[in-house]
Amino acid sequence: MPDRGGGPTGPRIRAGRxxxxxxxxxxxxxxxxxxxxxxxxxxxxxxxxxxxRSVHYSSVFTTTLSTKIGLFFVFGLxxxxxxxLNIWLAHRLxxxxxxxxxxxxxxxxxxxxxxxxxxxxxxAVTSLxxxxxxxxxxxxxxxxxxxxxxxxxxxxxxxxxLDVSFYAFDLPWYRFLLGFGFxxxxxxxxxxxxxxxxxxxxxxxxxxxxxxxAATGHLSVLLGIFVALKAVAYWLDRYGLAVKSSDFxxxxxxxxxxxxDANAYLPAKTILFCIAVICALLFFxxxxxxxxxLPVIGFGLMVLSAILIGGLYPAIVQKFxxxxxxxxxxxxxxxxxxxxxREAYGIDDTKVTEYPGTSSTSDKTKLRxxxxxxxxxxxxxxxxxxxxxxxxxxxxxxxxxxxxxxVDRYTKDGEEQDTVIGLRELNLAGTxxxxxxxxxxxxxxxxxxxxxxxxxxxxxxxxxxxxxxxxSRGDLGSYQQQIYYGxxxxxxxxxxxxxxxxxxxxxxxxxxxxxxxESGVNLDNPVNRAAYAVAFNEPQILYxxxxxxxxxxxxxxxxxxxxxxxxPWLTIDGDAYPxxxxxxxxxxxxxxxxxxxxxxxSRTTLGDTTAxxxxxxxxxxxxxxxxxxxxxxxxxxxxxxxxxxxxxxxYQWDTKDPVLKTWMKAFPDxxxxxxxxxxxxxxxxxxxQDLFKVQRELLTRYHVTDAQTFLSGSxxxxxxxxxxxxxxxxxxxxxLSMKMPDQSAQAFSLTTTFTPNGRDNLSAFMAVDSDPRxxxxxxxxxxxxPTSTTVDGPKQxxxxxxxxxxxxxxISLLSRGHSKVEYGNLLxxxxxxxxxxxxxxxxxGGELKYxxxxxxxxxxxxxxxxxxxxxxxxxxxxxxxxxxxRPPDTGTTKPPASGNPTVDQALQDAQKAFDAGQxxxxxxxxxxxxxxxxxxxxxxxxxxxxAQSTADRTNDKNKT
Length: 960
Fold this sequence. Notes:
Layout: H1 20-54, H2 58-92, H3 102-114, H4 118-138, H5 141-149, H6 164-198, H7 213-240, E1 245-248, E2 251-255, H8 259-289, H9 293-322, H10 326-344, E3 351-354, H11 364-374, H12 386-393, E4 399-400, E5 406-412, E6 415-423, E7 425-426, H13 436-442, E8 446-447, E9 449-457, E10 463-468, E11 473-474, E12 482-483, E13 493-495, E14 501-506, E15 509-513, E16 521-522, H14 526-535, H15 540-543, E17 552-554, H16 559-566, E18 571-572, E19 577-581, E20 584-595, E21 604-605, H17 606-609, H18 613-617, E22 629-630, E23 632-642, E24 648-652, H19 658-666, H20 679-682, H21 689-702, H22 707-712, E25 717-718, E26 734-738, E27 747-756, E28 764-769, E29 780-784, H23 794-803, H24 805-814, E30 820-823, E31 827-831, E32 834-844, E33 852-860, E34 863-867, H25 870-878, H26 901-922, H27 927-959
Parallel strand pairs: 3-29
Antiparallel strand pairs: 1-2, 4-7, 5-6, 6-9, 8-12, 9-10, 10-11, 13-17, 14-15, 16-17, 18-20, 19-20, 20-23, 21-22, 23-24, 25-27, 26-27, 27-28, 28-29, 30-32, 31-32, 32-33, 33-34
């Protein structure tokens, strides 16, 4: 029998130990796991670098990365060294050990247990705290860059007379350093105390002294450092009062000193600073005195002083000095807050004009003629007609339009007109079959612009398209129509390689193309392919034959995320909008610089103040905020994103903004000068919506300029809820071309209304000039209605509209069956000392899947009209015909040809049935005739839908 214990007949096998083969396997698996984790980390880093290099903003990546790495190592090493040094020092200062008590005998076991691993344990502890501290510090890269690159505001705060840059750029960094110092002091104190306790320097139950002289001196110094940092905190708190928020009167985010701050807290902080310095010196003195008596007494006095001087005394001042005469005491500080807030939000130049609200002109003909001179009333609501664009101009199922379209200006025959515009973007949900090749190689882009007049509808209530069909043709001329970057393009595409892309389809069949732009990252390199396979968790990228020479991967394709990525220091407006500029489709993105450190300026929460009824139903329109709480904002950058190449360009818009200048120092050559903006691009820039919404929210309180009125709260306004939306959210601002009373001609404007706090009548109307080519761009005008009389607000107008019997009956008829009535934007227009309201009303039929304009509501001077067209409604309100009144609709207009004779005939029959139904309503009404017309309409629409479905199935089969 062989000797199993080992010997000449064979090797000895140790019980319980894995074999060499298993050990090798485990080592191999471990190495592979480490390599896999390392490559995953590398893939994230490498793909980010490749993307930034592809958009020509590699300096943003390197600056951000180097700053984060620098902060990580500097503060990580500082924390590790501080903690490690104190542990080493506590160990060095340990007393001679003598196990004279049960406590020390118990600790002796731990000391013996860790003795062989002391160096490794020290390394592990210091590495852990260093990693945590470094990670925390690296997140402060914005704070560091703003501090090191900060430029002056050339404005001083009214209390300490320091430049605003101290509060915006310096104070946040000092507070971070102070917080880091507190964390280091506390960790060092805990680590030193534990080490002293472990090695007998501190005793809990042992007889004799509780601490050795060495431990006492060591811990006293650390406590002294902590108290010294507290003294620095008290000193910085003095300046922090200028940017401190509190609830006060009409605002929940009041910022700045009040009477109690200036006369109680400020001197209290100074006194506490002096006490903390003395207390820290007493702790340091224990190095010589070796007693805790004086430091403990000093620390107790500091705590007591903080309670009495820092807490009780200000409460007494507030109770017995401020409250009995609050308005007189607070007025000077309120005045400072009013001035600073208006400056910080760019509303200090707001022009407030008293406005009667009711017209005194008896000449109705004159008023009717003034309507067309005063405003181009937009009856095509961009937030309603998207389904109409979808049904009439989608052309193919794999195209789609955004939920909310945009309003822009385009010139035809020398006349500028408000235009509703949208892009025919890619909709992968509508492709014939969803698979990896179709979703990422074949269907890669949208095609063409669709635009319609904002102030007109055809005889059937449909938009009057000025740019339509596929390829798009119309008033916009020739331009690059392929859309590789858009609001609905949220997935990646791989283009330019062996696989051809579907370009568009027409009557001649499907057209294919191959991307020729230089956008995206080249996948020729196998390392790049492997990195993207890992980053996107898609192994096929690594080995697919559809990827070859020239293949490029496009991602980060929405305009907002591209701008936010190349400028991570900007806050992005929620509404990017397209424009045809220099024969290319460009997305225009407004961007803001913000800070939370403007002294005395009240704060606002961007997520709340920019929310309205549109963001409630479409979260993609929400602002992309780097900082949600701010008290300074500027529209400092206008950005463009090319819809074909994805090129991002940042233009300096506000040339005076010190925050932008600071970031331009930190990231040189990323923002181009304002002079580089072409005239064609300038024609499509506009005043941004989110900035306007922030300003209107502030102006509900800060339209007043004197402290007494502000304190009384008698002039507080509020933004009304959207009367046409059931979400209960604020009414959105509206773009339209109009003329304010002090203007000589119409200007493209952004408008809103205000109501008194807690009431529904109108208190003010606000508009801002939105055309940057005009000298008045950015000028805010407010028409303030009298408080002695009431003028109907939006909600009251809508209620009046719904309650009038004739109108209510018509609405009831329009919404019979499966039809649904949808209300468009309720526009407000100042007209001859009065206010004109206009609202389009759409009907979405049961068989018809998109809304059509059927009626227009107009209200002026207490008189309401509800007619088929805007001109008819205006004529009825003013009792006279206007100069531009169109002839009445005879119902003979034919629907546009679809290219399918069966569909065309069915649509013509549907139009005849609809016209017959309208005549039946006007004659009597004749309900039997109306019911027959509705049945004929339903049958015709059903025939049209069936014929179109048959045609679509035939086309899809031919493609296959």
